[in-house]
Amino acid sequence: MLENNTDLQLEIADLMVQALNLDIAAAEIEADAPLYGSGLGLDSIDILEVALVVSKRYGLQLKSDNENNHKIFSSLRSLAEYVAVHKTK
Questions:
Q1: What are phi and psi of 31, to 5 degrees?
Q2: Distance separating alpha carbons of residues 56 and 14, to the nearest angstrom
Q3: Cα–Cα distance between 78 and 61 in angstroms, integer?
């Protein structure tokens, strides 16, 4: 497992809050809470927007046909772990 990446999680949470105009502070997004549906309550359009801003910010590719998307976007922690491994910026 990766070292604690809470700074990266907070950075990504902040990107999500800004991109989606969420009525929640980035620090209030729980690392293991589901992003999709229950939990943070994002829908598929929101997830696409998150993928876009994360891809731009970290120089990585998040493709809609990636079979691991369900796992990657399951929580803030899993998204941060994916970014930590794959980012180029």
A1: -60, -35
A2: 14
A3: 16
Class of domain 6-86: mainly alpha
The DSSP result for 4-60, as a single string, is: P-HHHHHHHHHHHHHHHT-SS-GGGS-TTSBSBSSSS-B-HHHHHHHHHHHHHHHT-
Scanning the structure block, which residue is given the tokens 């772990």? 81
Q: SS3 for 74?
A: coil
Band of pLDDT at residue 64, cut at 50, 70 and 90: confident
Tell me whether residue 26 is exposed, middle or buried, using C-beta atoms within 10 angstroms of its C-beta: 0 to 12, 13 to 18, 19 or more.
middle
What does the pLDDT look like over 9-43, one tens digit per residue? 999 999 999 999 999 999 999 999 999 888 889 99
